[in-house]
Amino acid sequence: MKRLFCILILFMLSACSNGESIDTTEDEMLDTKNVDIPSIIFTSNKQNSVIDEKEMKSSIKTYLDTYEALYLASYPFQGKIDDEIKLTQSELDKLDQIYRLTKENDENFSNYISQNTLPEGYLEESERISRYITGINEMLYEIDIMLNQLTDDIDKGVIPTINLDSITKKSDVVNGREQKKIEEFLERKDIDTNAFGENSLRKSE
Fold this sequence. Notes:
By secondary structure, the protein is mostly helical. 60% of the residues lie in helices and 0% in strands.
């Protein structure tokens, strides 16, 4: 039942991304034993500094690559949750670590672009990237909380209610149009990132 709701919600939000799914089996996707949690996320102590283009490109790449790596790391755990498979304490600790790193990665990049002077032509698109990625992460986290509540209601024999207001409001910044603009900017500036690529699970949602 929980997976049914998950599929329904993701279908409604399918405009957020596009592309083909990666070629892998469900057992492989749900294997949490060898999950590689990134040890490095985007960080910067700079404030009131003038950022040159080389550093800006590197910062965007690090932020997006970390975002993608963290999502790939969370995917097996989320798959088990969607299948109503109880996670072990060790798995819960790893998932909590992934959530924490994801939030830190988003906050660090947001602070970096707001507290420094970026190269010409980078501020608007960097803000778009920050809004889009943070929106996706917040949306998926809210979906997970909502699905857990739905499952609890069903188990108690209560007719579940679905409140998509908070999630659908994010569709203004998390949609296929915004992703396309980001991809065009990355290509224009020759920023090579793992995010949005052919092997990205985001492309299959």
